[in-house]
Amino acid sequence: MTSHAPSPVPSPARVLLADDHALVRRGVRLILDSEPDLRVVAEAGDGAEAVRAAREQEIDLAVLDIAMPRLTGLQAARELAAVAPRTRMLMLTMYDNEQYLFQALKAGASGYVLKSVADRDLVAACRSAIRGEPFLYPGAVTALIRNYLERASRGEETPDSLLTAREEEVLKLVAEGHSSKEIAALLVISAKTVQRHRANLLAKLGLRDRLELTRYAIRAGLIEP
């Protein structure tokens, strides 16, 4: 009878914890180190120390306080995104502030956790970030939706209005495999105009060829995979 070797236990995620208050770091460390899949391997008292720590060792997740000396958590997040792009980031803050929330997401953070409910939300937020999923507390979700609706009502560009209606038509037909000549006939425009639309699509979306245009069309829901 053959015995099966036990499945290897996955290593806990390596966490960097950055906060200028030692007591806060101690409390957060207790929460995280009590979980089998999380382990704090480095601490930092400011944003610059956090960036240095991430350069010196492999970190899976950086938990950054927003308000820190030398470099704020937001500044540190921007630097970490450049020097350690595989490191996930979570912002930990006492500020329920929409401006900080949007800046944190723009800086590349996967989530935004309030210190007042860290004992309830932080572990779930860490696991979400490590899986590559966003984590936002309910008030942050409301703020994002409100911001989106306000921008849409003012007619500001939202992600789904990046392309004009005509560009969407051309993109869909390109992704479906039609030639420029066929697209020109279907849309009753010249082949030269089709080529111009294709060039605009590639430039606007930062893509290189027809294959990438097709992938984009699938993600945008213009065609089925």
Automatic annotation (TrEMBL):
This is DNA-binding response regulator. It comes from the Bacteria. Pfam families: GerE, Response_reg. InterPro entries: CheY-like_superfamily, NreC/VraR/RcsB-like_REC, Sig_transdc_resp-reg_C-effctor, Sig_transdc_resp-reg_receiver, Tscrpt_reg_LuxR_C, WalR-like. Gene3D superfamilies: 3.40.50.2300. The keyword Phosphoprotein applies. The modification 4-aspartylphosphate is found at D65.
